[in-house]
Amino acid sequence: MNLTSTKTLFASLIAAGFLTACGGGNATTESSTETATTEEVAAVTYSVDPASSVVAWKGEVAGVYGHNGVIEVANGSVTAEGTQITGGDITIDMTTIAPLDSASYKDEEGRRASDLVGHLSTGDFFLVEEFPTATFTIKSHEGSKVTGDLTIRGITKEETLELSSIEVTDGGLTAEGVLVFNRQDYDVKWVHFMKDMVLADNIEIKVNIKAAKS
After folding, report:
1. Of the candidates 40, 106, 98, which has an alpha carbon nearest to the alpha carbon of residue 67?
2. Strands 172-182 and 133-142
3. 112-154 pLDDT, tens per residue?
4. Domain-by-domain residue ranges, the chain?
5. CATH of segment(s) 43-213
6. Is the Cα dihedral 114, 117, 119, 122 positive or negative?
7. Cα(142)–Cα(67) distance, integer angstroms
8. I want to staple 74 with a disulfide (CB 3.0 to 4.6 A). Which of 82, 93, 95, 195 is the partner?
9. Residues 15-48: pLDDT tens digits?
């Protein structure tokens, strides 16, 4: 091999090495092997099943004793992306309020469970004849807190539902939580001032919602 041939071969080897180092030839770039791993979760709307959903309430009298019971869900819907709730409305039928603390009542005038229901339905409390429903409209969900607008007696205030569990399956959504509101904020006040003072202001609502895909 003469000197000219040797120089030509040497130059070819250098060029091949340079192309390889710079990603030439058949080299595959990193971007071409990347696969998208982020997948958007579609929003799903679930229809609340009133027959399977439960709303329980509890109020206290000066911390000495209290009343508790249930109230029916009229209808509602919940929209979620996976287990993240993004919206929804729950309507409660205030005409169905019923006490369960049977030990607190006697079969005598003014002491029956039906007497309590009648009183809670008056203007002293929920004024059911004029406002037969209450609603909770969901606005946001962060961690275990679901924030929304609670409307009682036509008055709307922002409240927070503290979730204890949420489960989403192929069949639907189940969520449980507790919401505590101050009745004074909604004009749920006994007109007898001294009697109203012995009632605890906070009312606890425990919610168990079961909903199916719409």
Report:
1. 98
2. unpaired
3. 888 889 989 999 899 999 999 999 999 999 999 999 999 999 9
4. 3-33, 43-213
5. 2.40.128.110
6. negative
7. 32
8. 93
9. 444 334 444 444 444 444 344 445 678 999 999 9
